[in-house]
Amino acid sequence: MNVTCHNCKTKLNIPDNKIPRDKASTFKCPKCKERVHVPAVKQQETVREDKEQSFQLSFDERLNALICIDGEGLKKKVVAIVKQMGLNTEAVSNTKAALKKLEYHIYHLVIFDDAFDQNTGVSGILDRMNTSDMSLRRRICLVWLSKQYNTNDNMASLHTSVNTIIHLDDTLQIEALLSKALMEHKNFYTVYRESLKLARKA
Hints:
CATH class of the largest domain: Alpha Beta
Strand order of the largest sheet: 6-5-7-8-9
Helix content: 25-40%
Structural class: alpha/beta
Distance between the termini: 40 Å
């Protein structure tokens, strides 16, 4: 859970397993030592919200996903979740294979992690995305699984030119986070395309 200290405005990311369910809690801000209050989170409401945000596709609108993850355990987990969400899913093990796939296929979701291809894959994927034609790049929801940044760190996402960042500690909620990222991406570009049509630019 992301929490902001009301006193010094420091943004903190608290692992969900450290937050008591069904009751409010407090902790000291590591920066200013003021007490930060965390409201109660009801388990049933969280599950219902996750289901409402679930991103599911029918057969005739299936999208393609490319998984660029180093660790076999995490890769299998992400591949299984993305397939369950209804996307055609492929996984690669190195940057060369990833770039070749991106050259000849359209992927609507691309997920990579810090360790992909011994940490050189990150720059390779980001360089490829940043040099893509914008009409193609807009179709791709790019997700970074990272130890460096907090989940949904919008400033870091903007700076690194990715759509969404998910901290590796939050992979237990990865289906809900990916669903949210894909829905936001779809909704934003639906509005964007409609705006272009109204402006007679599309």
